[in-house]
Each structure stands twice: as structure tokens, then as C-alpha cells.
Specification:
With 219 residues, the chain is of the alpha/beta class. The protein is 47% helix and 17% strand. The protein folds into 2 domains: 8-77, Orthogonal Bundle (Arc Repressor Mutant, subunit A); 84-195, Rossmann fold, CATH 3.40.50. A 7-stranded mixed sheet has the order 5-6-4-3-7-8-9. The protein has a two-stranded antiparallel sheet with strand order 1-2. Strand 7 (149-152), helix 8 (159-168) and strand 8 form a beta-alpha-beta unit.
Length: 219
Amino acid sequence: MAPRGIPNETIDRLFTYFRALTCLRREGSETVSSKRIAEICHVTAAVVRKDFSYFGEFGIRGVGYNVQKLLKNFRRILNFDDSIDVVLVGAGNIGRALLARSGGFEIEGFNISMLFDSDPSKIGKTVGALTVGDIAEMPARVKSAGIDLAILAVPDTAAPEIARTLADAGVSSILSLSPCELCMPETVKVTCIDLSMEMARLMYRSRLHDQAKDLRMRE
């Protein structure tokens, strides 16, 4: 739920703005205008300025917004101004790919600090800066470290049981790269990413756009 008086739509867009600003910082941009933010996020400049106005005056007229300062303010508003430790379960191809870009996560305030797997051939091996731990040790280590966020890069059949184990260890937020829905208590927030469905949705929208374009050309 959004803070009192602030529309949920505004809070949702803040995450989109945050992503845009992170990309701009990687490109070396020091300042940015509301118009440029609007172009990246596919909204209007008026919407950007109104959304920002709920939280104070961030920009300077005629200059724009300082990217670094705006990111710092958004971290505070979105409650992740401190670095957040993350546990990654699954040291297969997807897990390794995530660790390969973990530097990007760190820029955004997330630090993958633990990695677990159930495969004896992977346990004890080093992936990046992490050593693959035995999943049997995961509950105690996660609970001791007080980790709240987990990423699941495991087979669909294993995801539900692992998610329940993590919840029992105190994890309150789970990002699952397995498309199956995880039935969890209301206290545990879960997002499941189904890449095949996202690709299907993308193609549907693209073809719909092409059909509308063809129709206009025929008129």
C-alpha cells in the first residue's frame, strides 16, 4: 500500500523512474530533465513532475535533476537506502548468469551474499566471489544472517518446497524464476517470472501493433 495521500500508480512508477535513473548513471549522465525521464519511461513530463512533487522539490529550474541525488532520494522513499543482502538458490546456468551481472545488482543496492544448491557436484565450488553451499545448511545460515530476500533459480518441481523452507527461515520476499505459482502465507511476498509467457505477451503486442499499422496504411 502506498503512503497516505500518494496514489499507488505513483509508487509503481517510482520503480520505473529508478530503473531509468540507474541506466542514466551507468551511461555517465550527471543531470536529466523531466522530459528525458518521461521519454525513457513512456509517460509525459507533466506526470513525472507531478509524481515527484509528492515527495518534495528535487530539481532546479533550467538545470534539471541531479541523477545521483535523485537516486539517493528514491532509495530512501522506496525503503532500500541501505544495501540489501540476497540469497540465491540454484548454481546452474541461470544462477551463474545472475552472478555474472551481480555488479549491476550492487549498484542498485542488492548484494547476493549467499549461494546454495543441492547438487553434490556443485557444492563447494566457487562461482564468482561465492562458494556454493549445501542447501541442507541453508535454513540455519539464512536465519542467522537475517536475510529477507531470496532468488530461486531452480527447477519448477523444486521451487515450492524451497520457498517454504526459506519462509520458515524468515525470508519475507521471494523472486522465483520458475513460472509455477508458489502458495505462500500472506506474510511472504512472491513474484514469479515466466519468460515464455513474457515473450508471448511481447509478440502479441508487437503483432497487434503491426496489424493496426497495416490497417491504417490501407485506409
